[in-house]
């Protein structure tokens, strides 16, 4: 989706603030919100020292919005129903703490959280509604479902599982949040835990592959938006389940669906499965 026109928002529009406003996802999200009549951009947040601070959030599109990019979380959330946050874990957690106090819903797209940080998100979701997913695209979430099915069906067939992901050269976390989630989905479908099976590195005299392990391989380069392939390697055959993003539009579109979903919820930790009705 590339939004081309600025829509006039309805009086009842959901008021949306964007964190990471000048980032790759921030720009996609601002463009998408401005093109959605049922949403209104009311806040834009970025890191202290970011060159966009003090400028109009729509300046990069040549579309003034009247919303000025700020590093002040309280100011960015003053008139917001929902915050959409694609920043870094420490930024997201700081924004979430303020949003939880104000009862502002939060869509968290940021990846790279530790287990302790994920527990903080769950705690904040007792006060406000949160959608937390390492991938907002409908296609990736359907891919998770396909992986659940494949992992169950192939469990006793001696298939070795490897997850290969590729992203642009600016990405700072590895493996991607999506790749980790794929590993979790597969492990859970097989009645196990990823932590007991994951192999994140191989180098030198590794020995033979450990049966039942789930291997991860990471590629970084150029402007690759996001590719994920899960390989089930058996005797005499291989199955590959892959998703490839050629644009960030799918992530933005899914995030807006999550924002609309949050406008109907007061608290609780929700996933994109909840938003998309994929739980059954
Ligand atoms: N769930 C999903 O569907 C998707 C998730 N992602 C995830 O979203 C995140 C952002 O990705 P992307 O847009 O490519 O990254 P960018 O680096 O392009 O943008 C991040 C933005 O957040 C700002 N930021 C960084 N640290 C902080 C902080 N501590 N407080 C406030 N703002 C901060 C950056 O400002 P500055 O440049 O000044 O540091 C920048 O404006 C990543 O974790 C990525 O993995 C990405 C795509 C899809
Ligand atoms: O950093 C990115 O770009 C992306 N990050 C997410 C992840 O870590 O899974 C989602 C998507 O793959 C793009």
TrEMBL record:
EC number(s) from the headed UniProt entry: 1.17.1.8
UniProt KW S-adenosyl-L-methionine keyword: no
Gene3D superfamilies assigned: Dihydrodipicolinate Reductase, domain 2 (3.30.360.10), NAD(P)-binding Rossmann-like Domain (3.40.50.720)
A molecular-function term among this protein's GO annotations: 4-hydroxy-tetrahydrodipicolinate reductase
InterPro entries to which the protein is assigned, alphabetical: DapB_C, DapB_N, DapB_N_CS, DHDPR_bac, NAD(P)-bd_dom_sf
Enzyme class: oxidoreductase
Main location: cytoplasm
Catalyses which reaction(s): (S)-2,3,4,5-tetrahydrodipicolinate + NADP(+) + H2O = (2S,4S)-4-hydroxy-2,3,4,5-tetrahydrodipicolinate + NADPH + H(+); (S)-2,3,4,5-tetrahydrodipicolinate + NAD(+) + H2O = (2S,4S)-4-hydroxy-2,3,4,5-tetrahydrodipicolinate + NADH + H(+)
Family: Belongs to the DapB family.
The protein, known as: 4-hydroxy-tetrahydrodipicolinate reductase
Organism: Comamonas odontotermitis
Gene coding for it: dapB
């Amino acid at each position: 989706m590339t939004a081309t026109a600025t829509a006039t928002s309805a009086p009842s529009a959901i008021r949306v603030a964007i964190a990471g406003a000048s980032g790759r996802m921030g720009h996609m999200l601002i463009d998408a919100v401005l093109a959605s009549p049922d949403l209104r951009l009311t806040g834009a947040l970025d890191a202290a020292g970011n060159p966009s601070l003090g400028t109009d959030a729509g300046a990069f599109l040549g579309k003034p919005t009247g919303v000025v990019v700020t590093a002040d979380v309280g100011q960015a959330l003053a008139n917001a129903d929902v915050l959409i946050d694609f920043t870094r874990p420490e930024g997201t957690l700081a924004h979430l703490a303020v949003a939880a106090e104000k009862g502002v819903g939060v869509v968290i797209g940021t990846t790279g959280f530790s287990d302790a940080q994920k527990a903080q998100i769950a705690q904040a979701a007792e006060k406000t509604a949160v959608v937390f997913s390492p991938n907002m695209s409908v296609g990736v979430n359907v891919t998770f479902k396909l992986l659940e099915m494949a992992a169950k069906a192939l469990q006793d067939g001696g298939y070795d599982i490897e997850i290969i992901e590729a992203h642009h050269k600016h990405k700072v976390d590895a493996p991607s949040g999506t790749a980790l989630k794929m590993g979790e989905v597969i492990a859970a479908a097989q009645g196990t835990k990823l932590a007991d099976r994951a192999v994140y590195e191989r180098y030198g005299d590794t020995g033979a592959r450990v049966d039942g392990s789930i291997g991860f391989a990471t590629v970084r380069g150029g402007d690759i938006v996001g590719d994920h392939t899960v390989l089930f390697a058996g005797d005499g055959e291989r199955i590959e389940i892959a998703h490839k993003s050629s644009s960030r539009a799918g992530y933005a579109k899914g995030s807006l669906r999550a924002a609309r979903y949050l406008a109907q919820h007061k608290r609780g930790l929700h996933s994109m499965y909840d938003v998309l009705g994929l739980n059954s």
